[in-house]
Amino acid sequence: MLCYVAPLLGLLVLLQLQPEAAALQAPLRRIAIVGAGAGGLTLANALRKLDTGVDEVEVFERSVSNLQPGTGGGIQINSGASILRLLGFGDELDASAQRITRVLTRAASGRVLLDLDVLEAAERRRNSGQFAASDLKFYAIMRDRLQQMLLAQLPDGCLQLGKEVTNLEQTDKGVSLRFRDGSASQRPYDMVVGADGIAGAVKAAVSGTETPAVDSGLRIQLGVGAGNRPSGADSELHQWFGGNTYALTATYGGIGGKSEMIAIVYQDRKPMGENIGWQTADVTQDAVTRLEERCFPQEVVNVAKGCDRFFQVGVRYRNPLTKWSSTDGRMVLLGDSAHAMPPTLGQGANQAIQDAYCLAERLQALKRGDYGSVREAVRSYEATRKPLVASLLAKSVFLGGVETLDGPVGAFVRDNFFSVMGTVGVAEKIFVDGGVPRV
Ligand SMILES: Cc1cc2nc3c(=O)[nH]c(=O)nc-3n(C[C@H](O)[C@H](O)[C@H](O)COP(=O)(O)OP(=O)(O)OC[C@H]3O[C@@H](n4cnc5c(N)ncnc54)[C@H](O)[C@@H]3O)c2cc1C
Predict the structure, then answer these.
(1) How far is the CA of 77 from the centre of ligand 1 (A)?
(2) Is 21 contained in some domain?
(3) Is 208 among the domain residues?
(4) pLDDT in 10s for each residue of the chain, 439 residues
(5) How many whole angstroms from 72 Cα to the centroid of ligand 1?
(6) CA atoms of 236 and 103, how far apart (whole Å)
(7) Does residue 266 lie within any of the structural domains?
(8) Could you give the CA distance from residue 275 to residue 219 in angstroms, rounded to a whole number?
(9) For ligand 1, what atom is nearest to the CA of residue 337?
């Protein structure tokens, strides 16, 4: 009797699995992206520009103001810039972002700890054949400029603002979304990508539980203005150390001209609660006092005084070695939602852009028949990106700790650390490596 029942049961199981297996192998046509940051908007462009077979891309963004001109700070992009060039944004980057050609690191006393000629460093690496002939470029760009650039090549209606995803529901027909305003998606999506930053609504759905981000103890005050910049060319990025504080000043290409920015990083173990985020908060006086008390040169204090908006954020990060996708690969994470890292290496957005390209490229390969299922394609994306971002995250956490060391011994260790890293070429290697995309 058993010899009849067993094959019958097997057949029933197969019939049960069949529709799902078929759906998973079918080309993906409809994809929803949650979050319109650098990662989400790059993915929307990449899905349309590569031959992925995806013909409907919708981006849902909870904020109505994050994409307005005049919001947010500036970021340095390098490896992300190479990816954006692949996607056809090279001319716009050259026209609107500020090229970085020198990184000058000094103690507040004026002692030079590291002086990196970026162009020469890139040329040295190129000549040693360490990366293919990509023209490596380092830029500083305002966040709003980058987002507007990425948005401009998406069709009208692709981005929906004020749509906060609160819930994801998966059936064998796809993934459906629910929004804070009470609405829901009309039809399920073949795939939902969580590019929703550290807040992580999609992360919770992928992991099946809330996974809180880790507070690094680092705090950043970030000022933006059109006013003062320290001596030196616009293409110079200056880093300063004084007391337990690190400050970076640079010029960023933006909408309607250049902006000056200062980022002041320090340690504070008092719990900060939620990030204030990118809304304007007036912390100018606190920032100026911090710099003056730690004897930063007047040219640095003047940058802070010349800012017309200041933000304050607490730096948190995510363990990158947890799940980035649901078992069948239909819910996937990228960027900060998968691996938020301290910004001390200036790599978070660069990595989000690379994640986006890598995922789109794997979906193109899926359409070509290189993978047997969505899950395989998504696994390949994860296997490529996870070790890279895990290593960057570890370096960023370490660097944040060194940059904000306190007391005379701390300052001695920090200053000599940067000086030695410069002398033996490690700083140059880390910086130039950050410019090489790995997708
Ligand atoms: C001070 C500072 C300086 C930095 N400097 C650099 C730098 O120089 N170079 C660099 O590469 N990186 C830098 N970073 C890191 C970089 O900003 C982030 O890594 C990058 O923005 C991550 O991009 P993302 O697209 O993954 O997420 P985000 O940019 O965080 O975008 C996520 C989007 O999703 C939206 N969202 C969230 N939840 C939901 C939801 N439930 N429904 C719908 N929408 C939602 C958010 O409103 C947001 O617009 C810096 C970060 C900070 C704080």
Answers:
(1) 13
(2) no
(3) yes
(4) 444 444 444 433 333 444 444 445 567 999 999 999 999 999 999 999 999 999 999 999 999 987 888 788 899 999 999 999 999 999 999 999 999 999 999 999 999 999 999 988 888 877 666 555 457 889 999 999 999 999 999 999 999 999 999 999 998 899 999 999 999 999 999 999 999 999 889 999 998 877 788 999 999 999 998 878 888 999 999 999 999 999 999 999 998 889 999 999 999 877 665 444 555 567 889 999 999 999 999 999 999 999 988 888 889 999 999 999 999 999 999 999 999 999 999 999 999 999 999 999 999 999 999 999 999 999 999 999 999 999 999 999 999 999 999 999 999 999 999 999 988 888 888 888 888 889 9
(5) 10
(6) 6
(7) no
(8) 10
(9) 26
Tell me, what CATH number does 207's domain have?
Answer: 3.50.50.60
What separation in Å is there between the alpha carbon of 336 and the centre of ligand 1? 6
Q: Are 83 and 438 contacting, i.e. CB atoms less than 8 angstroms apart? A: no
Q: Is residue 254 part of a domain?
A: no
Nearest CA to ligand 1 atom 41: 165
Domain containing 378 equals 28-101+137-214+317-402
The residue whose two tokens read 């930053």 is 197
How would you write 199-225 as a 3-class SS string? HCHHHHHHHCCCCCCEEEEEEEEEEEE
Distance 198 CA to ligand 1 centre (A): 7
Question: Ligand 1: which residues within 6 Å by Cβ?
Answer: 34-40, 60-63, 66, 73, 75-76, 164-165, 195-197, 199, 201, 220, 222, 263, 313, 335-336, 343, 346-350, 352
C-alpha of residue 37 to centroid of ligand 1, in Å: 6
Q: Ligand 1 mean position to 293 CA, how many Å?
A: 31
How many domains, the chain? 1
Test site for ligand 1: of 42, 43, 61, most ligand atoms within 8 A of the Cβ: 61
Distance in angstroms between the alpha carbons of the first and the last residue of the chain: 55
As a residue count, the chain comes to 439
- The closest of 272, 164, 264 to 214, measured between CA atoms, is 272
The residue contributing the CA closest to ligand 1 atom 20 is 349
Are the C-beta atoms of residues 334 and 356 closer than 8 Å to each other?
yes
The atom of ligand 1 lying closest to the CA of 198 is 30
